[in-house]
Amino acid sequence: MDERELRELTGRVKAGSLSRRRFVQTMLGLGLTAPMAAEMLATAGVARAETKWSFNPTKRGGGGLLKTLWWQAPTLLNPHFATGTKDQDASRIFYEPLGSYDPDGNLVPMLAAEVPSLQNGQVAKDGTSVTWRLKKNVVWHDGKPFTADDVIFNWEYVMDPATAATTQGSYRDIERIDTLDSHTVKIVFKKPTPFWAAPFCGTEMIIPKHLFQAYKGDKSREAPTNLKPVGTGPFRFVDFKPGDIVRGELNPSYHVPNRPFFDAIEMKGGGDAVSAARAVIQTGEYDYAWNIQVEDEALKRMEQGGKGRADIVASGNIEHIGLNTTDPWTEVDGERSSMKTAHPFLTDPAVRQALNLLVDRGSVQDQIYGRTGIATANFLNAPSRFVSTNTRWEFSVDRANAILDGAGWKRGGDGIRTKDGKKLRLVYQTSINPLRQKTQQVVKQACTKAGIDVELKSVTPSVYFSSDPANPDTYAHFYADIQMYTTTMTRPDPQRFMDQFTSWEIASKENKWALTNITRWRNAEYDRAWKAAETEMDPLKRAALFVKMNDLAIQHVVVIPVVFRPWVQVISLKLRDAVKSGWDSDFWALAYWSRHA
Amino acid sequence: MTARAVEKLPVALAAPRALLWREAVRRFRRHRLAMIGATVLLVLVGAVVAGPLAWRLPVNEIDFTQKLKGPTWGHPLGTDDLGQDLLARVLYGGRISLAVGVAAMLIAISIGTAIGAASGYVGGAVDHTLMRITDLFLSLPQLPLLLLIVYLFRDALRKALGPEGGVFVLVVAVIGGLRWMPVARLVRAQFLSLREKEFVEAARSLGAPPLRQVVRHILPNSMGPVIVAGSLDVAAAIIAESTLSFLGLGFPPDIPTWGRLLFDAKDNLDFAPHWAIFPGTAIFLTVLSINYIGDGLRDALDPRRVLSR
Predict the structure, then answer these.
(1) What is the pTM of this model?
(2) Which domain does B172 fall in, by range?
(3) Using a CB-CB distance cutoff of 8 angstroms, which residues of chain A are in contact with residue B253?
(4) Is any Cβ of chain B less than 8 angstroms from the Cβ of A440?
(5) How many structural domains does chain B have?
(6) ipTM, interface predicted TM-score of the complex
(7) In principle, which of A80, A347, B64, B172 could form an S-S bond with B103, CB 3.0–4.6 Å?
């Protein structure tokens, strides 16, 4: 898939021969994000699809109490201190960003009057600035007007190192913010920035200057409004017990007419995913529950005759198998899997290709993940044919055998292949999770048939995913030959996600295994493409660069993608328009939620 | 006593000892529950040893068309969620579970008996020290200790004995090494009371050295509670092994020990109960039969107990 082919595709969407949704799905399949796909369509001149709400009330309120359940409880209500989606979601009840991402990745104006673009001239052609026009009738819950000063304050607040905000990464590229008038700001970046929507959009909400300016810097944690938010959102603050419950009531002066529908909202935290699913589907005690990581079989059984349903939304999360390019069994300078070593046989392209053919993604999807994992068909095959439905990943023990035979790996007496005194024996590690153990067994069986001996290892998740530099069993140490886990793409732009294959991000003892390149793969061509994408302003050219990076990683079998893992939440059958976006908070459209009798 | 008489003495003693053993066997055979237990255990052991030779379906053949099937002729115990034959898995896993259980029990009992005996017989400072060590072991937080031991020795043992052998030694040592304390206390209590008994005093006054007193006279009489504790330990060890697997510290996840089978089955209890029932029954039968055998042994070996004829 190169730039020309991408242009052809966007052209087909414009002509109407390819549906918008199909295009977005295809881009997801290539490892891009929906927001990027939407940006590409906008550039090609395809009109943005407005989100349609099934219920349009003629007056505010009247909906009663909305009860939602988060099995991890929020601990504070300042979006700039959020340490996970739980805090972001709780803050989103009261605060809003300039723009939100809908499920298709379109930027939808919230506090902005319109979304900037190259077409309307608000995004500079060279990518060095973006101009936001703000909505004029917006007031904070305490009655003070929302203005350009609030926007600028948020940037200053976050960038003060003493504030210790968790959202710094999104604001780091800003050089300065100019006020054009009381409701217009111009954000000037340090260098051309194709992803100009990082600051103030999505989960980057805006807090009021008049209540926080006294608490900028090292007093930031003392602000009473950290726990009693005053925002612009559809609900006003009522009560908050950290680690337990958040309550809000309808904001009578909300800036969208006739919204919200509900008179009050309750966000209860705690418990576990299974009981949360039961509370919505079986007992009907709650209307909505977040992030339900439950086996599909169990969900289906609950859904039969239940009061709710599972809602499954695309995301960029990929369950994948990473192949170690360094030697995990030799210690050099106090670390294994050191950059100074090379893996004894995983450096052989034939072995990597064979392994790729031995992962039966179809069975993994059909028999193990069900609706909650989708085999990554288009991610792997010849990109030039990717739109056709007959391109599929391949599972073939015979072909794997042929490749290994051809490369000179001979079967020994025990059925295990050997070459130059090296045996094809792998340690395959993952976290403890029934779904993953089943996948491990499926892969192991195929490998055994191809003469590869696989030893399975499973590590308790709290250890495996910890960032403890002293523990050899974390995924970042990668003291195994191959390992499997899900990488989550939390940001709407793939740039930060793709740095996991760049040579400067290699995890090692030196950086306490904190960097993102876990497979320790190095490729100069990939590095160049990544750097080019960082400043490329044409969305199509940029997308082509990302596709190229993906192809490089896949062709070299750095990773073997297994399934996409969509977000799963459960929703009461009575709740309407509670559409989750994979690129934004669950509450991105909270004001539009409603319930029928 | 003449020299001739002394020469003859062992011969004279030998006859009653043989009689004692014959008597014990006779008593054991009269214990009906113990006999049933022994039969069941023999069948189980025979099945896991010889079964895989007769039942030739592979343990890890994945066949999704057969997944979660109840018992049929093709799969007498049904299949799991990957379509693997449960009979083959139960038989294969039984080898490991039984071996782990028995080996860990033997380790726990040997250490426990040795420490309890030394402590109870010698008394004084030795008793004090050994009992404080026992207390120390009892108060050790087991889980962090397990983690530590596994991290320290796993790789070395794996290199030396291979993935399964290494884990086996580790698991058995860890479970056995952390379960001897109750046995030690039981044995010590027995020794404290028995060493003052007339028959021990008699042996002592006849000039029996301490080791002989302990091995010949006190130990056999204190074995009753130890055997019962040991039989319970087998069950605890089988379960403890599954706990270790649960934490990812035991056997690799694809080795179907009984504990692992139960763990995998627990989420599917409501619609595939066969998956949990068979390995569960196997553990249950093993534990129960070992318990009854223990009961029978205790009765049979207790010379003071008079059985009604």
Answers:
(1) 0.78
(2) 3-56+90-307
(3) 432, 437, 440-441, 456-458
(4) yes
(5) 1
(6) 0.74
(7) B172
- The domain that holds B262 is classified in CATH as 1.10.3720.10
Question: Which residues are within 8 A (CB) of A305 and not within 5 positions of it... i.e. 6 or more apart?
Answer: none
- The DSSP result for B102-122, as a single string, is HHHHHHHHHHHHHHHHHHHHH
- Residue B266: other Cβ atoms inside 10 A: 11
Judge whether B269 lies within some domain. Answer: yes
Query: In three state form, how does the secondary structure of A257-293 look?
Result: CCCCCCCEEEEEECCCHHHHHHHHHCCCCCCEECCCC
Helix, strand, coil fractions of chain B, as percent rounded to 5 = 80, 0, 20
pLDDT digits 0-9 by tens, A437-450: 889 999 999 999 99
Chain B CB contacts of A444 below 8 Å: 60, 254
Chain A: give the shortest CA distance to residue B17, in Å. 52
**Residue B65 located in a structural domain:** no
Quick check: is B70 in a domain? no
- B25 assigned to some structural domain: yes
Average pLDDT of chain B is 83
- For tokens 């881009």, the residue is A27
Among the partner-chain residues B81, B248, B270, the one whose CB lies closest to the CB of A432 is: B248
Q: Are strands A318-323 and A559-564 parallel, antiparallel or unpaired?
A: antiparallel
A417, A351 in Cβ contact below 8 A? no
* Tens of pLDDT, residues B26-72: 888 888 999 999 999 999 999 999 988 888 888 888 888 887 788 88
DSSP label at residue A255 = S
CB contact under 8 A, A457 and B248: yes
Contact A57, A263 (CB under 8 A): no
Identify the DSSP state of A49: P
